[in-house]
Amino acid sequence: MMSKKKRIVIISAIVVACFIIIGIVYAFFSDTVTKHNKFKLGSVDIEDINLSIKQEFSSQTAHAILEPGDIDTVSWTTKNNGASAVKTRQTLEIYWEDVDLDASKQVLFLYPANMKKTEILADFAKGTQAQYQIKTQAVTREVEGKTQKGIKYEFLGDTLNGTDGKDVASEANYNSTTEGIIDSEITTDDTKKKEDDVAFRVLVNPNLSYLYQKKPIYVKITTEGMQYLEGMQYQEGQWVVVDTQEIP
Fold first, then answer.
1. 109 vs 53: CA distance, rounded Å
2. Which CATH number goes with the domain that contains 165?
3. What is the pLDDT of residues 60-79, one digit of tens each?
4. Residue 6 sits in which domain range?
């Protein structure tokens, strides 16, 4: 018959062995996750440059104020500085101060950057039958105790080549292709393989209350990226925020 002391020794040995096995398994999976995360983050090196909003109709020199009926152009360039090719996703947000408390009022409307100004105004006049407005999401945020309302537009950008020499770049077209509404003098799209020039027209609602006159516009862009891998199925959790900029 096994002595009590011997049983204790055997049980202790089993417990120690279990802890060793658990430790090995934990170390294996922990190391895998850490390397995977570093691999994803380290392979994406993107920056946004030249973010601006230019007023078209207004004589004001300020670049981000509300002028009812004005048509502005918001633009920026996304640049891949990394070795590997990357897919990009963009989020454009434009905010204004809520000054007349009209919950149904939409202040800004997004249009393709190469669309004629006259065609934008004609399309807006169609109301709910407008054909060319880009569908945006209504959003709000609180800044220093004041409510700002806004519009938000999320879209896929270009796939950009890296410095490793592999050519997998592909263009996302943000412009309209409808004949008759295009301003042939505007060339906002690009063919560069490591940079993506992005631009949209922004119509300020011509029917705004005078309370909005000369109120500031706040523009924010968020760029996400993920390393391009041939044949890989991309999932939501793989996007990494790589740059955020805001004006003013």
1. 14
2. 2.60.40
3. 434 478 888 999 999 999 99
4. 1-42
